[in-house]
Amino acid sequence: MEAPTAAHLARLSSRKDIHSGILERMNWVKRLTEKHPGWPWGPDHPICVGAAGETDRDLLVRTDSLYSEIGLKRVYFSAFRPIHESRLENLTPTPPLREHRLYQADWLLRIYGFSIKEVDLALSQSGNLPLDRDPNS
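^ that's the sequence the OP posted. Answer follows.
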C-alpha cells in the first residue's frame, strides 16, 4: 500500500484506487484465510512511509483498521527512498528513525492491545511521533 488514504494515494498515482484496487483484494485474502482457519500464516501488508505527505497518525489509523477490519497479522513499514529518474525523485527521503518509531507504535497496537486513541497520545500536535522519544515511554 503506497499510502494510507485515497487522498494520499491520489498524490502518487492517478491509476490506482485504494478501495477497488487494494482493500478489495485484501478482503479477498481475508475471506480465503477464514476458510482455512488452521493455516499457520495470515495476511500481511507493506506500507510506504513518507512518499505522500501522510502523518504518522494517518499511517497508524490505517494500520489499526487493517488489523481490526481486514484481520491482517502484520503491517510492514518501509521508509520512502526516492528513485533516480522517477516522478518522485525530488522528494525528500524518509528518515529510517521514523520507520522505527512506527514499528514501536505498531507493537502498542498489535502486541500490547492498546487502542488507537491511546497510541494517539504519543503523537505530537503535527500528528507525528517524536523522533527523539520512544512512544512506549
